[in-house]
Design brief:
Distance between the termini: 86 Å
Radius of gyration: 31 Å
Structural class: alpha+beta
Largest sheet: 13 strands, antiparallel
Number of domains: 4
Shape: globular
């Protein structure tokens, strides 16, 4: 390599001017003869099939797949490739490149048929297709399919090739980040173009760690340092951790490609979007001369909107000099709008608290407009900050039911105000009401449970409990129409109902849903396996089976990460952890799992907590169906156990945390950068510590609730709900 090529990491010559390598675009560094963005989008469809295939969980099928690939597929491809090369050279005097992964929907059927014919001709005794059922196309990182992510990944891949070609002599091994690795795999799927593009650096490619190879921390750090010296930017990015590191710590959120959102039918619901955020800090070397001030200074991260209580502090003195340090790694709802970094000084002995010296703001919309999904800010002329994000993608819905006032048959709250509006005509019927709030505190639905009929007249008549079969539950779409203060009318549109029906001998309760599904419930309190058992008969699809499993299952199970992050999961010991897992059913958790030909091992589509009336569900699961399940289970268990296990007798809106103070699900910390000092349950998945996060379930601190006789009184509601 020439001396000019190794001119150093600080800059390159450009006609007499000097530019930092961080200012050079990917197109200026390395030429690639493939449209990697389009290729990656096509290849990801294939990778999604392979990554989530059921047969990868079974050793015999893996062994058989390797045998067929080694003994059958590769010899066949070799012969076809040789024939293709000979044909091109005889016809065109050159080799015409073609991709190895040719996954175009327009010709997929033709390609499959042609491949099958060739296979059968070559291997008449070997079946072309084995009866292995592939699961639905999914990736754990749905943002990878977003165009802006792929464009940024292509730019970083070209820089990686430039770095390898120019500055890798002193590096024994290079470890590609996950976004770079994605582009490398796709580049290799075009073997002719790849061979031409890599001709000058063919000898260097052996230094790159492949996806299946083990890497150590030293190799990752060496790659990071080389990248930083060359481009003066952090090596890792949001959605692009160094290969070998990301897999060791699973992220605390579960998101997947949402092929269909069935809840678009409900105008009262708005989708929830999540993005991954990383913030890096680099201190200038002159900071070392300011040790006194530096010891008092700290950086505070907060979000622009939705979670005003969030304040995560990092002492400036803990940051290394002249190298990039990942200070924060978190997941934010798009509604948080952005993050703000405050440089604060704790002041002297007489100064209480801290004062802001300077701050920097990173807005999500500004970051999305940047082609690299990254922006840099300077603070106090001593610290450089880089914020990086992934494109926002749809995340599971979050809904919770909170108590509200009793309503009549028409949906109006029982109130003197309503009575005067109706010219003092008595309000007939009594329904227990719950308001359904989404992740941002918006009203989505109103749930009403029929308890009594009749009306109240002073000294004459009182409402009476309706028959068991008439104690229906209905869900209305929309929010209350308030006429005065907190007194209002329920929305008119009914979108779902649950009607109690006579259960069979082995079940204690049964409900018929307006969706056509039937829920059967049994409480096994007298056996060695005490607990709640549910069974669903669904009519939504003949080839789909639905199961309600007690506790948190599949992606909702608690995850044990590295030992240094034990404080992240509620600071519990191993014994407490095991005990909590065993108590999941008693805590009210149930997981909705759907089985089908495409998902033979099952797919968890919803998590319910019927005690707290809180649900999380994927966009492909119907919100009304999940709410009906949750309400019906709570009503049945309350009646079977003869106790108010879910505070159904509360008939007033309880005081909750002020909207925007600590909105649940709006910010979740990645466990890799958490510590016991940052242990707020509001920065963790809600189901890790549901009782604390769901503030409205804590009635112990609420003032005494007084209910009027007009509403019906406690005796009436106890008779209609738990007896």
């Amino acid at each position: 390599m020439s001396a000019a090529g190794r001119a150093g990491a600080s800059g390159v010559s450009d006609g007499g001017s000097t530019r930092s390598l961080s200012e050079i675009s990917g197109e200026e560094t390395v030429r690639v003869g493939v449209d990697l963005v389009s290729a990656a989008r096509r290849n990801l469809v294939f990778l999604r099939v392979v990554a989530e295939s059921d047969w990868f969980n079974h050793r015999p099928t893996i062994i058989e797949a390797i045998r067929r690939y080694d003994e059958l597929w590769m010899p066949l491809i070799c012969d076809l490739t040789v024939s293709y090369r000979q044909y091109c050279e005889s016809r065109f005097s050159k080799l015409i490149g073609k991709p190895a992964i040719f996954n175009n929907e327009e010709n997929e059927e033709y390609a499959l048929t042609r491949c099958r014919d060739i296979w059968i001709s070559r291997y008449p005794s070997e079946p072309f297709e084995i009866n292995w059922v592939l699961m639905k196309n999914q990736l754990r990182e749905p943002y990878m399919l977003e165009m802006v992510y792929l464009i940024a990944a292509r730019k970083r891949y070209k820089r990686f090739l430039y770095l390898m070609q120019r500055f890798s002599d002193g590096c024994a091994r290079l470890v590609p980040a996950s976004d770079i690795l994605l582009m490398w795999v796709n580049h290799q799927s075009y073997p002719t173009a790849y061979a031409a593009d890599m001709r000058e650096m063919e000898g260097d490619m052996g230094k790159v760690a492949a996806v299946w190879e083990e890497v150590n921390v030293e190799e990752v750090e060496e790659t990071k340092k080389l990248w930083e010296r060359t481009f003066d930017q952090p090596y890792e990015t949001a959605g692009g951790e160094a290969n070998g590191c990301a897999a060791k710590i699973k992220p605390p959120v579960h998101w997947e490609v949402a092929d269909d959102d069935v809840n678009v039918r409900y105008k009262s619901m708005l989708p929830r979007f999540l993005l991954e955020v990383c913030v890096f800090v680099k201190l200038d070397s002159k900071t070392k001369a300011m040790q006194g001030t530096k010891s008092r200074e700290f950086l505070r991260l907060r979000v622009v909107r939705c979670h005003r209580e969030l304040k995560i502090d990092e002492q400036v003195s803990t940051f290394p000099l002249d190298s990039w340090h990942k200070a924060w790694h978190l997941y934010c709802e798009f509604g948080t709008r952005g993050v703000v970094l405050d440089l604060r000084d704790r002041g002297g002995r007489c100064f209480k608290g801290s004062k802001i010296k300077e701050n920097a703001t990173f807005l999500w919309n500004d970051l999305l407009r940047a082609t690299s999904l990254a922006l840099e800010r300077e603070i106090d002329q001593r610290a450089r900050l880089v914020s990086l994000i992934t494109p926002p993608v749809q995340a599971p819905y979050l809904l919770k039911c909170v108590p509200d006032r009793v309503t009549d048959d028409s949906g109006a709250m029982i109130s003197d105000m309503i009575l005067r509006m109706n010219q003092y005509r008595p309000q007939e019927g009594r329904w227990l009401s719950r308001t359904v709030l989404d992740h941002a505190g918006r009203d989505c639905f109103v749930v009403r449970m029929r308890v009594a009929g009749g009306f109240w007249r002073r000294g004459a008549e009182t409402p009476s409990a309706v028959k068991w079969e008439d104690r229906i539950t209905e869900i209305r779409e929309g929010s209350w129409s308030y006429v005065a203060g907190s007194i209002g009318l329920a929305p008119a549109k009914v979108v779902g109902t649950a009607t109690p029906i006579k259960p069979s001998d082995q079940w204690n309760a049964s409900w018929k849903f307006s969706t056509g599904d039937e829920l059967m419930i049994r409480w096994e309190a007298s056996t060695s396996e005490s607990g709640l058992r549910c069974h669903l008969k669904t009519e939504t699809s003949s080839d789909t089976m639905v199961k309600l499993s007690g506790g948190r299952r599949m992606q909702y199970q608690r995850r044990n990460n590295d030992s240094k992050n034990k404080g992240y999961e509620e600071n519990t010991s191993i014994e407490e952890e095991n005990q909590r897992e065993g108590d999941d059913e008693d805590d009210g958790f149930m997981t909705l799992v759907r089985f089908s030909e495409e998902n033979p091992i099952g797919k968890a589509t919803a998590l319910l907590n019927w005690k707290l009336l809180v649900v999380e569900f994927s966009p492909e699961e119907d919100a009304v169906f999940v709410l009906l399940l949750c309400i019906s289970i709570l009503r049945s268990v309350s009646e079977m156990r003869k106790e108010d296990v879910g505070n159904l007798l509360v008939r007033r809106r309880l005081k909750e945390a002020r909207l925007g103070d600590r909105d649940w699900g709006s910010v979740i910390l990645h466990p890799s950068l958490c510590s016991p000092s940052i242990s707020s349950p509001h920065l963790q998945p809600w189901y890790w510590n549901a009782k604390v996060v769901m503030a409205s379930d804590d009635i112990s601190r609420q003032p005494a609730l007084n209910y009027s006789l007009v509403e019906g009184g406690d005796k009436l509601f106890k008779r209609g709900l738990i007896s």
